[in-house]
UniProtKB/TrEMBL annotation:
SUPFAM superfamilies xrefs: Galactose-binding domain-like, Invertebrate chitin-binding proteins
Cross-referenced Gene3D superfamilies: Chitin binding domain, Galactose-binding domain-like
One Pfam family matching this protein: F5_F8_type_C
Phylogenetic placement of the source organism: Eukaryota, Metazoa, Ecdysozoa, Arthropoda, Chelicerata
Source species of the chain: Ornithodoros erraticus
Membrane-spanning residues: none
UniProt-listed InterPro entries: Chitin-bd_dom, Chitin-bd_dom_sf, FA58C, Galactose-bd-like_sf
Name used for this protein in its record: Intestinal mucin
UniProt domain Chitin-binding type-2: residue ranges: 152-210
Residue ranges constituting the F5/8 type C domain according to the UniProt record: 1-134
């Protein structure tokens, strides 16, 4: 996914502005006087965010060690990513400036904005990052519902040598049980199986109703 707008609470200089936070960039640096640093992206359209990959700054010994992530659909109200217990999640970031670290969210989050708030860092607030996820139209639709297969017919008793029994849903069929083994049978065209007479009969006299 490619963000359309990058913003941050501050930047150290022109070379390390928010757009430099892409994995191939030099990295974003907050201004040293920034007491509440953050960087955020705007995708313009809704996306499903599933996690984040972070890196330290390129070619220099600075990185973010822990951070929080917030999401928003409007850019006005922000919701922290929480763990399965409903606690704001503190993610473990990087331990050097080059190794990527993946952090997955507990589930897919539908959002437009994603904000990363560094909590602790090495030397200076610096990072490169990318959001993991996909656009809504990239999620495959759920499979169509399938009609459940009716349970196989079970003969009433294995002790009974033979017996004829009506089909549970189709009046034109019946089961022949032989020592506990059921075999599905079909009446001749135009006839229904009579549960009472145990024979195929005319529909008006068979007394069978399909369900």
């Amino acid at each position: 996914m490619r963000p359309q707008i990058w913003r941050a609470s501050s930047e150290r200089d022109y070379l390390h502005q928010p757009t430099a936070a892409v994995p191939s960039g030099a990295g974003w640096f907050a201004h040293p006087s920034d007491q509440n640093p953050y960087i955020q992206v705007d995708y313009i359209d809704p996306v499903y965010a599933s996690g984040v990959t972070t890196y330290g700054a390129r070619d220099v010994w600075e990185w973010t060690k822990t951070f929080k992530v917030f999401t928003s659909r409007t850019g006005d109200t922000w919701t922290p990513v929480q763990d399965v217990n409903g606690t704001d999640q503190v993610f473990k970031g990087n331990f050097d400036n080059n190794t990527p670290v993946d952090n997955k969210f507990p589930g897919m989050i539908l959002t437009r904005f994603v904000r990363l708030q560094p909590l602790t860092w090495h030397r200076e607030v610096a990072l490169r990052w990318e959001i993991l996820g996909c656009y809504p139209d990239e999620i495959p639709p759920p499979p169509p519902p399938t009609t459940p297969t009716p349970p196989s017919f079970v003969c009433p008793s294995e002790l009974e040598e033979t017996g004829l029994y009506p089909h549970p849903t189709d009046c034109t069929k019946f089961y022949h049980c032989d020592h506990g083994i059921a075999t599905e049978k079909q009446c001749k065209e135009g006839l229904h199986f009579s549960p009472e007479k145990k024979v195929c009969d005319w529909p008006e006299t068979a007394g069978c109703r399909s369900t």
